[in-house]
Amino acid sequence: MTTDTDRTTSTSSRAPARTATKLRQGATAKGTIGESTPRPDGTLKATGEFAYSSDLWHEDMLWGFTLRSPHAHAEIRSIDVGEALAMPGVHTVMTYADLPAETHYGLEIRDQPVLAAGRVRYHGEAVAIVAADHPETARRAAARIKVEYAELPLVTDEATATAPDAPVLHPGRADRHAGGVPHPNIVHRQPIRRGDVAAAEARAEVVVRRDYEVGMQDQAFLGPESGLAVPAEDGGVDLYIATQWLHVDRDQLAPVLGLPADKVRLTLSGVGGAFGAREDLSMQAHACLLALRTGRPVKIVYNRYESFFGHVHRHPAKLAYEHGATRDGKLLYVRCRIVLDGGAYASSSPAVVGNAASLSIGPYAVDNVDIEALALYSNNPPCGAMRGFGAVQACFAYEAQMDAVAAELGLDPVEFRQRNAMSQGTVMPTGQRVDSPAPVAELLRRVKERPLPPERPWADAGGSVDVRGLPGGLSNTSHGEGVVRGVGYAVGIKNVGFSEGFDDYSTARVRLEVLGAEPVALVHTAMAEVGQGGVTVHAQIARTELGVTQVVIHPADTRVGSAGSTSASRQTYMTGGAIKHTCEAVREEVFRRGRERFGHRHPGWAGDAGLLLEGGKVVTGAGEVIGDLAEILGGDAIDIEREFRHRPTEPFHPETGQGFGHVQYSFCAHRAVVDVDTELGLVKVVELAAAQDVGKALNPLSVVGQIQGGTTQGLGLAVMEEIQVSGGALVRNPSFTDYLIPTILDTPSIPVDVLELADDHAPYGLRGVGEAPTLSSTPAVVAAIRAATGLRLGRVPVRPEHLTGT
């Protein structure tokens, strides 16, 4: 990868020639865009010195704890809190009956009770909350609350959700999706129809129909849900919280607390990962309610067990696909049906459905499609946002199909993909034309042409065996006998930003002033830094646009306008765009003041078209210094707040699914190399190479880190990660002992090839990075396992019994 911004940034002559946006500002300053600027929080996190929300402390705080339901679906007959209240050290106990105002909340549909009212709908639902002077006292008090339950029939899948006698989990629905679904236990349904599928089917020479299943994955962030609510003198509350979206938290909390929005003030605390799970409320309302009730600060920290019940997960899915093609490898049509299990409450299921439907055929040009995606209400754990947001489930299925069709045709799986790959100008199933680079064939070429890792890496020339390189690793289950290698490929497509007509914007406030004789920029946004490195890039943008060295990032809070969610791979595009937009306004004000005060000194002030800010100076396009920024500012700061919006999108048509639904697409391809012990069913992923177009790498090191992190999360879904739910809809493995995630020993070499093909619609030509690698890594790993074993493997995660038949 080259970061010379005056040249085409693709490293291959076969790639489409595109020129990245030329930098005009800050080219000589250190720490501007295009550099791998170190993260300010990196060393602190690596050494354990970083302060997370679980480290918050107030000298007179109480501790909160939540009582949760042991049943997945039950009527609450009675609640007796007397014994809990009588315990020494307990300050209050609250149930649904004690709520002061609105009783429900939700991201899209306000269907989730703050505390269960009348019945519980999933295992682990919050029933009561306790505040006490010690966390162990709060826990013991919660255990003394007596709740009488009467279990109710369960809804666990599509059959039980839509049966004639199915219990309706949310009767009397009045949300905007209620009128468009065939059953009230369906949250949302999105069909997409384009072309003439029946006619295309008649022409097809090869047809492949298969079913697929994706298990429920957890975000598995390391920092549990936690926060501190402090009652304020004005009757409001200050909440210090780890979240992904400060303003949407506030907008849900204010009605629940019975307070105006300006009296619910949120400040971001240290976030130990998110991946979508912190978009919904967890303990925020409970901490605030207890704080306002007791008049004391209240801290809540979930333990790992409780965390599994306290946030949403990735939707498990069942997918039925049918592909038709000509004998020479041209895709003619795709039929598919995607059923997502949304669990007990809606969360972001409607948007996940839209993504799954609109991205369901992958990055391929197919003229005829018949698609249906829907999400169910059930008594399983609630599901919502997770990295990849509906596109992950679809990608596993359509990439398995591409391998299956290629095998039927006798074609190389990469060549078959390349023959059908979309490119700039391709029309999506929704009728939207892709109007920026879509280098799908090139990404596949790059991963395929990369040299393969050596065979039998565990054995040296002398015949010695290093078991760490074998399936099973240090468990010493094999010395290489029965181990077979496989290679697999996959490529995916992910939208960037909020879609379907959502008013997606971000706000930035930039203050430029002289401190200690040096110009300093203060950047204030409400962006949630959840580990993605946004604060680093924001400072790089400010240095680039204002030509200053010193940039201070203000703590994120609700005292500035919304930055939207740290999700959908949108923050660098949106909040980065807002900072760029605001800095441009600040820069123009600098030029205006300079012209007004010093225009008589130099003819270069006459027109500002070629003026730049560099190194704290105003310079002409020819590089001549005509003003000093500190002198121009003097004692008067420039303080500007601006909003930034991407171009508008529109909702998908409710029957045809047509519409300009997404603002941008991102693409990533993977090649997986695995060694499989076919006797024991153990898998060792040897290498997981990636190639991704990022438009413009504002911080190349961070970009590579995002791609490697997303790749590892996809690896987890492929071979180990699943929340297991019993037939009674009870979670069986709510711990990191039983819910397994990849460790450093499971993570293979992940070489990354970065393309920079500018999207002219985006700030600096950039493209969202974080989610696309999570899509294609999963099907690539499973494709490699199929190649090694010859098994179909239509479900993830792949477990040993799937490989051994035991």
TrEMBL record:
Q: Which InterPro entries match?
A: Ald_Oxase/Xan_DH_a/b (IPR000674), Ald_Oxase/Xan_DH_a/b_sf (IPR036856), Ald_Oxase/xanthine_DH-like (IPR016208), AldOxase/xan_DH_MoCoBD1 (IPR008274), AldOxase/xan_DH_MoCoBD2 (IPR046867), AldOxase/xan_DH_Mopterin-bd_sf (IPR037165), Xanthine_dehydrogenase_dsu (IPR017609)
Species the sequence originates in: Streptomyces cuspidosporus
Question: Could you identify this protein by its name?
Answer: Molybdopterin-dependent oxidoreductase
Annotated region described as Disordered, given as residue ranges = 1-45
Composition bias type Low complexity, residue spans? 8-20
Q: Which Pfam families match?
A: Ald_Xan_dh_C, MoCoBD_1, MoCoBD_2
Domain Aldehyde oxidase/xanthine dehydrogenase a/b hammerhead residue range list: 47-153
